[in-house]
Fold this protein.
Amino acid sequence: MVSLPGATPFEIVALWIVLLIAFLGLAYAMFLRKQVLAHDKGTEKMQDVWNGIRLGANAYLKRQLKTIVPLICILTVVLFLSVYVVPPSDEAKLRFAGYSDQSLKLIMGFGRAIAFVMGSCFSLMVGQFGMRMAVQANVRVASASRRSFGEALKIAYRAGTVTGMLTDGLGLLGGTAIFLIFGVASPDTLLGFGFGGTLLALFMRVGGGIYTKAADVGADLVGKVEAGLPEDDERNAAVVADLVGDNVGDCAGMAADIFESYEVTIVSALILGVALFTQTHELTWIIFPLIVRGIGVFSSVIGTYLVKVNKNSESHNALAAINKGFYSSAAISILLFGIVSYFYLHDWRSFLSVVVGICLALALDEITKRFTDGKYRPVREIAKNSKTGSATLLLKGLSYGFEAAVWQTIVIAVTIFCSIMIYHGMPVTYILYGVAMTGIGMLTLTGNNVAMDAFGPIADNANGIGELSHLDKESRRIMDALDSTGNTTKAITKGVAIGSAVIAAVSLFGSFITDVSKVQIQAGLDQAVSLLGTGIRISVPMIFVGFLIGGVIPWLFSSLTINAVTRAAAQIVDEVRRQFRIPGVLEWKVKPDYQRAVDICTISSQRELIPLALIGVVSPVFVGSLLGVEALGGFLAGVILSGQMLAVFMSTSGGAWDNAKKTIEDGLYGGKGSEAHKAAVVGDTVGDPLKDTAGPALNPMIKVINMVSLLCAPVLVVYEMPGHSHAGMIVSGILCLAIIVGSIMFSKKGGFRNQTFEY
């Protein structure tokens, strides 16, 4: 039993109930998996197409694992050793009273290292198991479309819910288990857990994004624009790689992305909760975030199971059914939050902070929908500009992308302002805690959000299987309806993912200030001149330099990811053109070599992972070592501001161009094959790496940088104090700079000539 001084029987029981709810979420995922797998896989032709997707996805996952395991092993050792640089915290001494400082360091070192491995494994499980479930579901959705819309919708959404509940269940399980073991000392350990999740999410987001867009861009440019072939035509050599990419990018990548936001917000909330506990000796600051998370998982179980339509329904409005489940979960959550606040907290401030977070998620949903859904003016205006060519279409999309970034940033600013007003007049730690609780509230319905996102690629793959296996017209109509809804749900969840990344980063920023101040005071610095007392003084030139460097990192990262997609897509273009020149391919007499395109995408995406990850991990160490810990705070502010606006701009523009193309394919302005359609395909092709690679990759990058900053900040504080030599920090900074420059050069060089790949 965890040692919690002053804990009431209710609090002890509540913690164990939260742990049981985590297992309930995982059991629900297994229950839905069994339901999905009970459905048939259709005809032999459908299974043949599906098998190509399955083998390509498995090959990607296998190679990805080989790429990232060595780095995980190295970082596990680094995290174990990191606790030896600074004295044990007061919370660690309280939790493990009677142990010597050396024993405490050993305990916390093992705890942080094991938590890092656990966070990495959980993130990997969410991405890999969720993607495998999506692959198993897509052929079953295609088969079900031959019978009814309702059955196809239920299979697709419940398969996506498996991923959602894995995200919910594993995230809640990890955070609660660590707290039950380490008690008030858990923040030190949770840093390892959060860092493991964020790092793996970065790998899966970047790798999946490069893979999926290299295949998509290459397939569209040659297949649609040059050869005039329809979507998912079996003569296109990149068509299977494109379908595989939907899974590795939009299933594995997005699931891991939201999972690490889920982890990071609980880490920051508990760090700030422990800080308030030391001031007030009230455990409610720590227990309430865990109870909120438990309620969220429970509500998602109920809401996601409500998503269904009558099998014989003539209406093909899948989005209405999905929204029914989402709003049901939101209503249940808010009701239960209110009950807990009334009977347990006896205070409405934390409750209001959580509700503000839920409202933020709903607001971001609506903003993203209005800029990317084909029913609204922006997408219609972009499609209209296709009549005058790709240039005007691209310009219109850029303008709406810029505008969306404005409104989303304002909404996030208003949300944070509301959190500040809720704790108005209280010390800054309370305000930062309120912001962290807003992040907790925003990700309350993680199960629903991930289910909505995974639904998209499942429906997309099912549509592709239907096209390649020549299903009847009515089945294709059902799958088109599901695919169209999936495009909207994917765009919505991208908006939520970006917003959650920003709120999580702001929460971590607050944790950074709190943690640094605590170490500064322990080291002998006066509280008035600690970071909590002075704040990040942006007017100080050195801090402003850090702010500027932080502002350019997202741009550098985006440049390298888009460059990687461009190189890989060029290879796919050459390969598809080469195969089109083979006699008999375009006449359906010779089957294309799908595996070659899959190989190109797999190798190129994995080659880019390590250098991009190193930039995210090493850049905060570089700034902190050479410019100091306060400049590192300015660096974080620059990363958050620049990264958020750039991510929204790229994701929204790309999503709007994509749906403008789809509205034209539905018959607007001449439909498929028209000049307007060709212009829209160019816009979609430009937007693809923005919305599915560079934009989403900024989410985990922002959080990786914040987590690394939290981990290295205590070390920086110790070595900045009088009596310590700065030579080691200078050497460390120069070494980090060399790693960054080397990573950039390696990434820009690119290419994978003379490499081979085998299943």
Notes: Residues 10 and 425 are 30 Å apart (CA to CA). The two ends are 48 Å apart (CA to CA). The chain has one domain: 9-749. The chain has 22 helices and no strands.
